[in-house]
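User: My advisor, Dr. K., asked me to get a structural model of this assembly before our group meeting. I'm new to this, so sorry if the format is off. These are the inputs:
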Amino acid sequence: MQSNGTRILALLVTLAVIVGLFFAFKGGDDDGDATTVSTDTTATTTTTAADDGTAADKPKPEAKASREGKASVPVIAIVGGQPKAGVAELDFDKGDEIRFAVDSDTADEIHVHGYDVEKPVEAGSPAVFGFPADLEGVFEVELHGTATQIAELTVNP
Amino acid sequence: MIGRTGSRTALAAGWALHAAAVTAALLPASASAHGLVGRSDLPLPDWLFAWGSSIILIVSFVGLTLGWRTVRLEDYDWRAVGAGISAALTGRPARVLAGTIGVLLLALVVWTGIDGVDVPDRNFSVTFVFVTFWLGFVVLSVLFGDVFRAFNPWRAIAHVVAAGFSALVGRRQTAPLRYPERLGRWPAVAGLVGFIFLELVWGQTGFAAAGLTPRTLAVATVAYSLYTFAAMALFGIERWIDRGEAFSQYFGMFASLAAFEVRDGRLGRRPLLAGATTWALPAGSLALVLTAIGATTFDGAQEGVLKEPISSLFQSFSDAGLSPVTALRLTNSLFLAGTLLAVAAIFWGGIYGMRIVDGRRSASELARKFAHAFIPIALAYLVAHYFSLVVYQEQAQFTYLLSDPFGDGSDLFGTAGSGIDYGLVGATAIWYVQFGAIVVGHVIALALGHDRALALWKDSRTAAYSQIWMLVTMVFFSVLGLYLLSQANG
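Assistant: The format is fine. Below is the predicted structure of the whole assembly, which you can bring to the meeting.
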């Protein structure tokens, strides 16, 4: 029993260490990726929808405004009631200023869930958002008229 | 890696278009601001996932070798509490009160569902059924035992009707049919699958569950009520509650972990967890616990690891000419069925492993003997996945959904203007609750499995060997639970 116990212990501790290391490293990789992607500026959010089908090697349109400084404000382009480049990903840390703009070719109302921020957008004049990131979680940003999701707002602790 | 994210973008774009079409089809244009959908948890950080998995593995080993050597939970003692307390909590006035509350709430669900605004987040019915009732009674059951029996509206109505009918004809009625014992809990399993289908497949709008409209919910509630009354009339009220009624059986499963039990109308105490040891005797019990695990697994996975497979199958169905709504429902049905089958396969893998240790016992006997040990895992999954939903959505339930249940602008209690404070619990606190739930659930599952193994195999050596297999299965489920959380919104 004792020797069996020792063997099982060795096996499980080894497994635990392997699993732990694997994910510790995996986590590191992910962070690296995120940094690479974040160097890509807000321009990606406004790339045309046609690119998305063909350019498989294009990085995900990610708007890392928090790490870009306040100069670059991600712009989400809406064409015909749909986000042109897919659901945009807005990523902020708690305490940041959440800044983004929505440019639509039709008039609508933009609603940020959780924060309950609402702003009308007119055709041709972008709605610019700026509010403090004080709630953590993943929140939906949608067009009020059709309940179409246009962005996913992530606020990390 | 870059290629992967690129293709994900294309999929996400296509997905968004179709999801939007589905959403637009299911929701009226006035879909508004509050709760139910719109916020989800941040994925569990990798370091917490690594710690959780490691702790689960180490705790499993320690439990296996240093665990107790004598059976502790089987043939437990039940001790009646004081007669006064028992009468106050389970006596006739208490039962009438609880039953009345249950019936009124059922009526309110149907009434608001039919008469209120047909928007899920503005109508009392949807939040009440899918959060307050469905998740709230799980919590109450684990803490206080089978409280749903007292609040069960169908049971209360049936008893009143039966009493009235007996008085009218002058004698007590007996059930015309004998409940076929072979059926066991299978009708409850069917009911549970139906409810899950309604919640996760039928009401799915592309981003999160509970896009089910109040009208549909009201119709489903009435249909289930009629079905329940018919079954009670055929097989007897209490018989149907004890076997076939889906919610009684679902909540009762979690109540088996609690330290309170009513016997012959008398409230009593029993050791924590001990009630679970006799829970799995009827046929279909295993299916019930595995369905509970599978449902939460599917709900967690569809926003994370299964997001891409779902969206690509959805695409194929759409390309084949199905409408977005049909394509999405068909896709989700297939993935739900696949998840339930996968969960069952993992469980049976552990059981067949155990047969290597003792070939004299049949796989089905072993499955029946160890099914109850997976209740804590089902509970841990629920807590981990729905903790934040309960914390946030219950604020809605007790503020504007209470003051304005129909969503028509009324303000009964002056709380219609209040909203959900999403700052009440932070992301870090949610992570620790998720982590804690999975680890604690795993430990309790191990304890139940360990105790049963000692009862089955008198020598602790065989018991320990058999438990390696059970342990591998449980470790798999617990690590899977953490993994799904770490991949949420992936």
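One thing worth pointing out at the meeting: Chain B touches chain A through 57 residues (CB under 8 Å).

User: Perfect, thanks a lot.
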